[in-house]
Specification:
Length: about 260
């Protein structure tokens, strides 16, 4: 066997070895993710949703963060749904959520163990979505919630979520800004909530309408952090839209418009 052929074979063996290592790494990563999200308790919740007909099938991941995974699902009518599964293994998430739950009278007396906190967090987002919907603020429609699993309307099409304003800034920015201020006012005055993490990252234009999402950290206006969070929301919103060339109101003017 010539030296050149030996070198080619050796190179091929190294390529195969690298490929196999990558496949093993990818498999281990995927398996770890599956085990992290779909623990036995979460699987039982999903089975109950399937058996009750709330969902008919669960497909691929739409988004993955430190706090939760969102999956694309469908009901029996073929309508798209979003299944949001909060990760029970995230200690950092647990520490961060406590300040939003404490002071929220809707969850007074919630235990501090991880399971109770995560369940309260999912219930909290569900209730926030309900209150926002009742106040005529366009948010994903809440469908069902149990333990760490929240099911809601899917904002997007065929498993692809609609882009956020950060990803796709609006062409009619002034109109969107005005609509957002109306939403913030309705959220505060009618739903008696403050979003708490409002920015271009959790606002969407879908079918010509503004949609507000990621409502898990939203707090009642009676919450000790409500005014701080409202002012932070206002600052974030004004900063983003001013960069788009919109002649925004001052932070003080927006506050008076929203909170009176």
């Amino acid at each position: 066997m010539s030296r050149k052929v030996k070198e080619k074979l050796a190179h091929r063996e190294r390529q195969v070895e690298r490929r196999d290592k990558m496949l093993i790494h990818d498999f281990k990563t995927e398996r770890a993710t599956i085990e992290e999200v779909f623990d036995q308790a979460t699987l039982l919740v999903l089975y109950r949703f399937l058996n009750s007909g709330v969902i008919n099938e669960v497909n691929g991941v739409v988004s993955a963060g430190k706090e939760a995974r969102v999956y694309w699902a469908k009901n029996k009518q073929g309508e798209d749904l979003a299944v949001k599964i909060y990760l029970t293994s995230s200690a950092e998430f647990k520490r961060g959520m406590i300040k939003y739950i404490e002071g929220d009278q809707r969850f007074k007396g919630v235990k501090r163990d991880t399971k109770s906190l995560i369940s309260a967090w999912a219930q909290k987002e569900f209730k926030n979505l309900e209150q926002a919907t009742s106040a005529k603020v366009r948010v994903p429609k809440p469908i069902a919630v149990e333990s760490n699993v929240l099911i809601m309307e899917f904002i997007g099409e065929a498993g692809v979520s609609a882009p956020s304003l950060k990803e796709q800034p609006p062409e009619n920015a002034e109109k969107v800004y005005s609509q957002l201020l109306r939403y913030m006012e309705r959220l505060y005055r009618k739903a008696e909530l403050v979003h708490g993490d409002l920015s271009e990252y959790n606002l969407i234009i879908w079918k010509g309408k503004l949609v507000m999402f990621d409502m898990s950290q939203s707090v009642p206006i009676s919450h000790p952090l409500a005014q701080f969070l409202l002012n932070r929301d206002i600052t974030n919103v004004n900063r983003f839209f001013s960069r788009l060339g919109v002649k925004v109101l001052s932070n003080e003017e927006v506050y008076r418009k929203v909170a009176g």
